[in-house]
Amino acid sequence: MKTGKRAAALALALCLLLAGCGSKSGTSGPTKVVLIAKSTQTEFWKSVFAGAKAAASEYNVELTIAGPETEEDFAAQNDYIDLAVAGGAAALVFSAISYDENAPAIDRAAAAGVKVVVIDSDVHSNGVAARIGTDNVDAGRKAAEAALQAREGELVVGLINYDLGSRNGQEREAGVREVFSGESRVKGIYGINVLAEQEDARLKTLDLLQRHPEINALIAFNEPTSVGAALAVDELELNGLVSLVGFDSNVRTVDLMQTGAVSALVVQNPYAMGYLGVETACSLLGGVIYDPNALIDTSTRVVRRENMFDLESQKTMFSFH
What we know:
Layout lengths: L2 H16 L12 E6 L6 H16 L2 E6 L7 H13 L4 E4 L8 H9 L3 E5 L8 E6 L2 H15 L4 E7 L5 H15 L4 E8 L4 H14 L5 E4 L2 H13 L7 E5 L3 H9 L4 E4 L2 H16 L9 E3 L3 E4 L6 H7 L4
Parallel strand pairs: 1-2, 1-3, 3-4, 4-5, 5-11, 6-7, 6-8, 8-9, 9-10
Antiparallel strand pairs: 10-12
Helix pairs in contact: 1-3, 2-10, 3-4, 5-6, 7-8
């Protein structure tokens, strides 16, 4: 985000965080919880917000949602964290863009007495009181197994991952590589990192496929990279020739599953992440203690063309928002 736009956005955020602000838990006024996401643009995050809003309504919480425009701007997230603390937030529900770079701001929030719940993407901080999301290593294993099931014979695989600083993307790739390391059918792996943006993923996937025409399987690790990779496969008319396993659901990837550009989607439960994030924050403020090293797993489902119209698959791909 350009400096002027970012300054304006943060100024607006400060007004929102301070206007009508309730006090910390235990005093008059509604309990204030701030959800700071990695982005506000994708279907994944819109579903997270829907779950969070439902929980906020149920638990009578004053919920504020903030996040940068792109999943690379950890500095903006840090500013939002500091603003939330200054605005009297009792709890943060947070998804880290950077495992390390977001840690000092979370440490400051916890030191100020704010309860911190991590959802989706972890942060390297002892100030986190509870962790909610996907078992990302296991999700990576599922993606690798789906890629093996998508075609017969030898595989040469391209991995389309995003920011190296993001914990969940790296854990997913670790799970993929774990499965492939013991699989004789896999004859080569080419990995790239892209911006967590559809267009950057499309362009870099096109380049990867043109430089390595031997690739016949792709795995992309989140929603925007999956959309971009699927569009690249479709653009090169490689539907059926290159199998793609993506993450999360998006109208484009679901449509392209029907054409063969997408072989499978490892779909998370973002609605549950948002709902449980706010619910857990309220429990922490009520004195409940969680083991911060134990993940509250929101599970994943592998959706393929063969089962995409099943009721459970439809509910997973199109959670209410």
